[in-house]
Write a structure and sequence with these properties.
The strands form 5 sheets. Strands 1, 2, 9, 10 and 11 form a 5-stranded antiparallel beta sheet that branches. Strands 6-7-5-8 form a 4-stranded antiparallel beta sheet, sandwiched between helices. The two termini are 45 Å apart. Residues 1-13 and 163-223 have low confidence and may be disordered. It is an alpha+beta fold and 577 residues long. It is flat. It contains 16 helices and 15 strands. It is 47% helix and 12% strand.
Length: 577
């Protein structure tokens, strides 16, 4: 292929043309180190320079400003954490943007002050969140302990007031019993107090002593029967019952009750339904084994006193602590929401500033550092017409930095292929994006984007031609164009962004659709008979299935397709011809 001499393009006029891309120049900048950040900030706000990477052979971790990039990465991580907490606590984010702080050249002191504020907010939110989670865990323990105390007290009251034997099925829960091949068989049975019948390692006489001891507030003075109590997930209670039955060989008594209200577990995303249980076992070894089994299944065990009076005191104390804990949680929640509300007022501004600063240091990493001259050397492409504006921006950056050493700009002669830069406005930007999606023209080639402004909506209208629907499209797009500043918030909505940015495309598609709809004599998919038809249908249309031919009249329908064709069986053949 013949090589193109890109230097010949410099002979073209420097005036902006809508038919071709801009004439580009390769420029070189010598930027003093103390002015570099302000210079890149000014040029970045203008968006007139595409910098080249002069450190292509250097890895990203060995470049000069990698520590600054990491610093702003960390600040951005903190902002993401704060934003996540704002969403979790349903705090409204203000759309406020401090344009003065975002648009101006920020000094190092301004960035340090912003970082300190972000760190302070993050530290307070972290402490409040951690305290809130710990308080929730304490509240969870108190709630579960309350249900356990209520269940144990209820069971002991039921046993102490029972005159007969202990049955295998309780009115408040399910009891596992002893029996060969029958899981529902009663665990403890007593026919009368004078006879004994051994059931595993628990017999009726010992149970009778247990009941008598419970009645007087004791617990097993001369027998070694104890219990464990706790809370477990409701879907695991059946598993706990089977494992205990088989491991202890039936030498146990299990009673449980389902907790009606779901419990908010901080470790779970959704509320969990749980059950309170109590297990009686003979001997310390069996109780230890039952404890290990329950804990392995995720149960939480609680200490319950044998004395009814002490249990009642513990229950009252637990209820009182629950009330205090609820007040503390409410105060913590209010403090956390107030803190997040103050963050939400500035988080959009901070996000924008941090991303700009990180982009500045990413750009500075593209430059070469000259240690002898204490300056940075940058190269980049810009439109030749924009060089005076770039020089003005360099002068402003020097003033903002308070330096007396200006940035030196020189234009380089090169045969390298320049990038394509096509100026657009709010009207042509959407059409140019459509062209760029298929391919970007090379520098100096004719830009098809200008012709697309007409051909694209017209080709759409040929398929969509309808006067009524086109009017609705035109109306909606016209409102977006007229009130584009007031409706700019639509650009932030993901579902409406494409419609808002392409409002001028939709406007032309609607106008052309109205034009073609008028030619098709079609309005809301119905025939539009403005003038008299050039065809006359016979009055006698015959019966069903009979073809009727229209008679051509002496005049012709003035505009578009005659509406008589809309009802003809050969209308498709006519319109396609």
């Amino acid at each position: 292929m013949p090589t193109r001499n890109w230097g010949l393009l410099r002979g073209r006029p420097k005036t902006t043309s809508i038919f071709r891309s801009e004439v580009m120049s390769l420029i070189q900048l010598y930027i003093p180190s103390d002015v570099a950040r302000f210079t890149v900030s000014q040029l970045g706000e203008m968006g007139l320079v595409q910098f080249r990477d002069l450190n292509g052979d250097v890895s990203a971790f060995q470049r000069s400003f990698v520590n600054d990039v990491r610093r702003f990465d960390e600040i951005e991580r903190k902002l993401r954490y704060l934003h996540k907490q704002i969403e979790l606590n349903d705090v409204d984010v203000y759309e406020f943007m401090d344009e003065e702080f975002v648009g101006s050249s920020r000094g190092p002191r301004d960035i340090d002050d912003m970082e300190e504020r972000i760190n302070a907010h993050e530290s307070r939110v972290l402490k409040l969140t951690a305290a809130y989670k710990n308080l929730q865990l304490n509240q969870l323990e108190l709630i579960e302990n309350k249900y356990v105390l209520e269940e144990v007290s209820s069971l002991f009251t039921e046993i102490s007031g029972r005159q007969g034997g202990v049955g295998g099925q309780s009115g408040r829960g399910h009891a596992s019993g002893s029996g060969r091949g029958q899981d529902a068989a009663p665990l403890l049975t007593r026919a009368d107090t004078s006879s004994r019948r051994s059931i595993g390692s628990l017999d009726a006489a010992r149970v009778g002593d247990l009941e008598a001891d419970i009645g007087v507030g004791g617990m097993g003075r001369d027998i070694n029967v104890g219990f464990i109590a706790g809370v477990i997930s409701r879907d695991r209670i059946a598993t706990l019952e089977r494992v205990l039955w088989r491991s202890l060989r039936g030498n146990m008594f299990l009673n449980y009750v389902d907790i009606e209200d779901p419990i908010n577990d901080p470790n779970m995303e959704e509320p969990v339904y749980k059950s309170a249980f109590i297990v009686f076992a003979h001997g310390a070894s069996l109780r230890d084994r039952a404890t290990k089994i329950a804990e392995s299944l995720g149960a939480t065990l609680y200490q319950v006193d044998n004395s009814a009076e002490r249990r009642q005191e513990d229950l009252i104390d637990t209820m009182s602590r629950l009330d205090d804990m609820q007040h503390i949680l409410e105060n913590n929640s209010v403090a956390r929401i107030n803190e997040l509300t103050s963050v939400s007022e500035q988080i959009n501004t901070w996000y924008t500033v941090v991303r700009k600063e990180k982009a500045i240091y990413h750009t500075l990493n593209l430059f070469n550092y000259d240690a002898n001259r204490n300056c940075l050397i940058a190269e980049g492409w810009s439109a030749t017409n924009d060089i005076p504006a770039i020089q003005s921006a360099l002068h402003l950056a020097t003033e903002d930095a308070g330096s007396n050493v200006p940035t030196v700009l020189q234009e380089l002669r090169t045969t390298k292929e320049p990038p394509t830069f096509i100026r657009t406005n709010k009207f042509t930007d959407g059409f140019q994006n459509i062209v760029d999606a298929y391919g970007v023209p090379k520098a100096g080639e004719v830009n098809p984007g200008l012709f697309t402004c007409i051909t694209f909506p017209f080709l759409f209208a040929l398929m969509f031609g309808d006067l009524g629907h086109g009017f609705l499209m035109t109306l909606c797009a016209a409102l977006l164009c007229i009130y584009e500043k007031k409706l700019a918030w639509l650009a932030k909505d993901e579902s409406m962004r494409m419609f808002y940015t392409g409002r001028y495309i939709v406007l032309l598609m609607g106008i052309f659709s109205m034009f073609t709809g008028l030619l098709y004599n079609d309005i809301f998919s119905r025939a539009l008979g403005i003038f008299a038809s050039g065809w006359a249908w016979p009055t006698d249309k015959g019966g069903e299935g009979i073809t009727v031919e229209a008679t051509k009249l002496s005049h012709v329908y003035p505009i578009g397709i005659d509406p008589a064709w809309h009802h003809a069986s050969n209308s498709l053949l006519f319109t396609n011809s």
